[in-house]
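Mods, move this if it's the wrong board.
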Amino acid sequence: MKKLLTDPSVTYRALRLMRIISENAQRTLEQRLPSTLTSRQFEVLNRLYFLGEQTLSELATVFEVSAASMSQMVARLRAGGVVETAAKSNDARAKLVRITEKGKGILESTAQLLQPDFQAVEQALGAKRLQSLLEELEAVHDAFSATNLALED
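Not the wrong board. Structure tokens:
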């Protein structure tokens, strides 16, 4: 077995802090969301809002869930009127998912509710430090992905 270069407790403490931060962020998001929307559904809406339409397959890959699970989530979002689906023009089997005006409204109003939380974090850390932290967290995510230890997107 290869010897670690750092004390394993450093890695454990870092992972533990990331979990705590994630749980706190999740709790804050869930408090601000309408009761009809889960945090995972909000993440899907957010992606569609900023990146535009996506196929079911692309969404399943990005969110690291099965195509069947993503299909069920999209069906619930569609029933709520926040997304719509259409056949992809060059492949009728592939479904494109796009956010509706209702979905945009919900996303924008939720973002307004989250704005004070975002501002507080940025004020506490500073914009430059927050950007550096984001880059470091992306490197941690990439390291986990490279070693097949799954972290959620």
